[in-house]
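RETRY 2/3 - previous attempt timed out on the joint model. Re-submitting the same 1420-residue input unchanged.
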Amino acid sequence: MDFASDNASGASRKVLEALVAANEGSFPAYGGDPLTQAAEQRLAEVFERDCAVFLVATGTASNALALSALTPPFGAIFCHAHAHVMDDECGAPEFFSAGAKLVGMPGVAGKIAPSDLKTALAAYPRGLVKQVQPAALSLAQATESGTIYTCAEIAELARMAHAAGVSVHLDGARFANALVTLDCSPADMTWRAGVDVVSLGASKNGALACEAVVFFDKAKAVDFGYRRKRGGHTLSKGRFLAAQMLAWLDDGHWLQLARHSNACAQRLAGALGLIEGVRIAWPVEANELFVVMPRRADVALKAAGARYYEWSAERLAPPERPADGAIFVRLVTSFITREDDIDRFAAIVAKASAA
Amino acid sequence: MDFASDNASGASRKVLEALVAANEGSFPAYGGDPLTQAAEQRLAEVFERDCAVFLVATGTASNALALSALTPPFGAIFCHAHAHVMDDECGAPEFFSAGAKLVGMPGVAGKIAPSDLKTALAAYPRGLVKQVQPAALSLAQATESGTIYTCAEIAELARMAHAAGVSVHLDGARFANALVTLDCSPADMTWRAGVDVVSLGASKNGALACEAVVFFDKAKAVDFGYRRKRGGHTLSKGRFLAAQMLAWLDDGHWLQLARHSNACAQRLAGALGLIEGVRIAWPVEANELFVVMPRRADVALKAAGARYYEWSAERLAPPERPADGAIFVRLVTSFITREDDIDRFAAIVAKASAA
Amino acid sequence: MDFASDNASGASRKVLEALVAANEGSFPAYGGDPLTQAAEQRLAEVFERDCAVFLVATGTASNALALSALTPPFGAIFCHAHAHVMDDECGAPEFFSAGAKLVGMPGVAGKIAPSDLKTALAAYPRGLVKQVQPAALSLAQATESGTIYTCAEIAELARMAHAAGVSVHLDGARFANALVTLDCSPADMTWRAGVDVVSLGASKNGALACEAVVFFDKAKAVDFGYRRKRGGHTLSKGRFLAAQMLAWLDDGHWLQLARHSNACAQRLAGALGLIEGVRIAWPVEANELFVVMPRRADVALKAAGARYYEWSAERLAPPERPADGAIFVRLVTSFITREDDIDRFAAIVAKASAA
Amino acid sequence: MDFASDNASGASRKVLEALVAANEGSFPAYGGDPLTQAAEQRLAEVFERDCAVFLVATGTASNALALSALTPPFGAIFCHAHAHVMDDECGAPEFFSAGAKLVGMPGVAGKIAPSDLKTALAAYPRGLVKQVQPAALSLAQATESGTIYTCAEIAELARMAHAAGVSVHLDGARFANALVTLDCSPADMTWRAGVDVVSLGASKNGALACEAVVFFDKAKAVDFGYRRKRGGHTLSKGRFLAAQMLAWLDDGHWLQLARHSNACAQRLAGALGLIEGVRIAWPVEANELFVVMPRRADVALKAAGARYYEWSAERLAPPERPADGAIFVRLVTSFITREDDIDRFAAIVAKASAA
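RETRY 2/3 succeeded.
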């Protein structure tokens, strides 16, 4: 019963086998190999567009490097106040951008509202020398609250950003989870909606360690190779990243993995939602649930070996915060989550809550 | 006949199998897993000392992060003028250190001489505000010229550095290759000789992508976790790094791999050294050869599909530079180099040189 | 009628004359001169404590350099959401700290409340690797809203900060204005209340360009000389900074200048406060007023050549924001403000508001 | 007898009076005042070209900010191995550029030879991802050895740089000293010879603290205002910088001051050159002399209160280094140097050397 993180899983069998298969032979280092070329080509097909592709091993690198390509050191990066890039990367975006400022915006359930973006953009007028200059908007799809933007919502925010001369980055650590919920094409959810760069994450959803930074405007990527290299993110044996990405994208594998994760989240939400005293905070639209439940359920779950994180109640509006005797937790499903674990988890909560 | 790079190989079977075995199950992310703990423990045993260990995926990250822990932004990092950290990492040490200055020293065959270190240290007196302050000495073992320092040589340079308040870093991208040549213990080649931090590389010698930053003075490592995280170098599924390191170190595997590489280099050097018109530039002490040979040998080798890099003749003293009709090349052997490729390579050179 | 900025003034006659007097003779450069030594000594007397003093020419340099001495690159700097260091220095603190994160806190009238500091500190637990680490608290005295903290308020915030291992910086661009209002000693308002470093500003209050960074804990200042130098803030002819500081501090000159500014602000507030339709937003405790007034008053003032800035109504709570037909402005007095300008300004507002 | 530094002097009377005159009245801050506008206009006339001008208070800021506008963080800045930007600014160029690498070139008497620039450019091929990318060439005019480039020499180096896509910066801390020696126009010595940006220094030659960064290609300056601001180098009372620059440039004042300094250097060189046992190391072309003299002369001078710095003998070719009993020193003249001090200095040397 591990609902702590989608990073708790290993790799899917298919991805692992591809990695093993890629081991044979001697190939040019640092991405000069044919697998890397094939992965770049494959991503262009997946996104239905010529694009500049760079593989890296971590999501933090993918986000921070992508943002560094969009902002000068004196730039403002607009994001949700509780975005991963804001809260969970130990200042990586500031590091890679040489000191750009992340401007956090409020927003219910992890989503940025157009009105809040409007206010934020207005607070950073272009040309006002005493302030950092508007440079990038970073959206997470899915968000850190397990919710997703519709393509139309992305498009509206992107339009506003572009009108202010601001580039649009998509933190796609859970890109596939959002995609299968929306049931749209990768192109619809990105460049057709105005996204300039996507950090496409495979690690949380079946890869060992593989992320792709995909630039739809190749002009923005001209310096990226140098940035990746000096960041120490150009793997010497690049074929091992490429092999993961190719297998992951092959034959809809990534979507199948995401569908499983999402279905598990729905099953868990369905079961928990029926229990009195349990409340699910935000819409469950990907593979994460945020749940207020009795503390005695927490005790029982821990006793049974369940794993998950308590979450900051500050993320909830004051009236929605857990009362005494309750706790706010995050539950994450993944491609290896099993139905019986879900059912057992829910049963423990139900029993303890009724006690 | 691929002598281009030790990064052209994949992983050893043993390392790969360990990676596959590590895939099962659900474990805490970001290095909180038992394999990571075991790898840290194992490295402490290997180095016969309590130490602080951090695994990363690339050598550039390992070097640049290690150096960033030793220098303030206004520090001087002393290294060979053609060290990897100086020439081949696109400014990663400057990036991770927020702008420290690498001070290149001359030195025959890639090695720093005590007299040159003395001069360099004297040029950066502590407390002279207009200058960057002496902070770190970075030695490569083996060097970029395929040579190695004896333990006594390391100790002498380290003593001089420490006397000037300068910490000592060892770029051990080819640590194992040097170790088996010296036939000493890891402790002898590092902390017993005064090394404070070693970047221990497995990637070039049998791993997919795995390096360990090992601090012998744990006080110097207190901030390293944050630096690694904000550099995007904390892998979410840390067990995959640990599995590689454990298998690589297990039962002398790393030394066996290095012995093979080195033996291949010796065999190649032996064969080439007999050929008239061919000259080996520097002592072959690890798994690299630097060779002046006739251009017609180069033509014949390329025609036969051999791979290797031409090297900058500027690295040679003027009288040793290739004359017209000759070329200076680097040849690298690895754990997958085969004897028949060596013999075939040498035969082609011999035949073409004699033509 | 220039109420745009206290930077609109030149220097006081006394400061200017000291500058001229300092011109004679030949002295060691870069702060090695006797005037610089005397200024350092004088500041130690003023603060009743041995301290490390560094003179610079701008307030942004003073703040950003001071903060860079308190935080690692992966640190969090807590400040008011609309602090000068947050909003008006184009990212200088991020630049000088190599990418630290400024964490803005809300707070009425520019002041940080202990409860908000508590929440902010709780959001950045020490040792949580994925987050930047708590490093510094920056308070402005006076604040950007023209208000001031009592010594007890500073002490309470400083206690909370220190308990969390966080150093305390005071942005004293308007230090003297706050000091004369509190009628306390410089020591009371700083180190006795727990302040570790103060950026003491003279430029806005009678100097041409002179600020002092004063460290009460000299251990925190050991690297500061290098930081100032590489920031390009070590003036070659340091005596010109020292001469300003000495004259400014001499015989209570700085306090006289500040008293005049503050008295002008009170006189203006008194006059405007009587006018129907005019509202002063926050307590006038230093030399700034923030005023909601009818737009027709704005028109009349501009027609009469008055200078001041419109201010962001976002800084006001929604119910206090100007209605249609009204405008929110900032008015700043300085040591050169004249009473007749104040009276004329108020008369214009009164007449236009009554129209 | 102060020959320690041209920074030991104060300001010229004319500059000082202009500063005092600029004090009256109330003006927009941060460079929005009419004097700043006039100074920009005046510099455009002096350089016979529309240009983007930014005033700052220090030479280090001027150099480092200018270079940061020419290089990406992963760029190479080519300069003399003993340039001021390399040796005397505590890493400011690395800081402002977010980690660019300064590549030092050898060169007799502080001057870069075309052949050495060719070698350096060849060592940093564009597009080689593992290396920093060629970005800027920084020449000092006059050099740190007191020598100067002819306009033709500048033009040749600039042509080579531009052919490699490298911008050209001129460190003009002693611009006027070089200009009067060459007896050419500022335009001839800069943009007509291919210089893209000049750091024009007034501080060492009659100003209190004033330097101008002048961009001949305004496109390179679009971001400069932000860079200056976040570097803390935008003075709040900008008129005080402008007043210095205007007075300094007025009616050839800057050239008169430089002519005096240079003439003093010639007089001193003439006198010292006649003394047996004294050797002047490099051509005296500006206001600096580098002299090998007997240690007993040094003793006598010090006893008489003379001030100057011993200089690193490493800057001399081995056969030219001082023998035992001799010392290598730098002597700098300035606009306040007096003939009788020169004559007295030379007399002491002559007497002691003959002893």
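The CA atoms of residues 99 and 284 of chain B lie 35 Å apart. Closing ticket.
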